Amino acid sequence: MTVTEKDKLSEVISKCKPERGNLIPLLQEIQAELGYLPQEAMQEVASFLDIPKVEVYGVVTFYNQFRLAPLGKHHVRVCMGTACHLRGGKLILEALERELSIKVGQTAPDRSFSLERVACVGCCMLAPVVLIGEEIHPKMTPFKMEEDLIPYRQEIDELPENSN
Ligand code: FES
């Protein structure tokens, strides 16, 4: 965790009462601040609420809303609702895993991309759908997906820390 993340974590915890029933709201609040739940944060929560870390970890892994890794600069969400699933959502997801060299639920080591599967995003007429950030990519095919990733990759390549 960075120093800033540690500060934010302390601030969130300081506003909470150390009661077991606060576990989920506390985790939600921490994730809202940090964007994910680092191991260290889960340890802190366990100590603060005086419960075993395994209990905290159990809750975090049980609910889809919690994330163990930070999001990438570009967060890619593949809709796997019924319409998208029937129109090839799984193929799109597999293509993205290959293209980005990460599995669903993971973030690339350089934090450029993260990949997630989500339930219906509400535009079934456009199935199969992928969201990159808040941008909708409709009627996806593995080939179209590859093409649509190009500008996002270029943006990453142009970031100052990636220039030599
Ligand atoms: S199922 Fe994908 S947008 Fe509804």
Descriptors for this entry?
alpha+beta; Glutaredoxin; 2 domains; 4 strands; 48% helix; binds FE2/S2 (inorganic) cluster
Question: Your description of this structure?
Answer:
The protein has 164 residues and is α+β, with helices and mostly antiparallel strands. It folds into two domains: 60 residues, Arc Repressor Mutant, subunit A; 89 residues, Glutaredoxin (3-Layer(aba) Sandwich), CATH 3.40.30.10. It has a four-stranded mixed beta sheet, with helices on one face. The longest helix is centred in the last third of the chain and has 16 residues. The chain is globular.
Number of domains as seen in the coordinates: 2
Category from helices, strands and their pairing: alpha+beta
Q: What is the fourth-level CATH superfamily of the largest domain?
A: Glutaredoxin
- Biggest sheet: strands side by side, in what order? 2-1-3-4
Helix coverage percent: 40-55%
Uncertain parts: none
> Which architecture name of the largest domain does CATH use?
3-Layer(aba) Sandwich
Q: What would the average pLDDT be, to the nearest integer?
A: 93
CATH topology of the largest domain: Glutaredoxin
Bound compounds, each kind once, are: FE2/S2 (inorganic) cluster
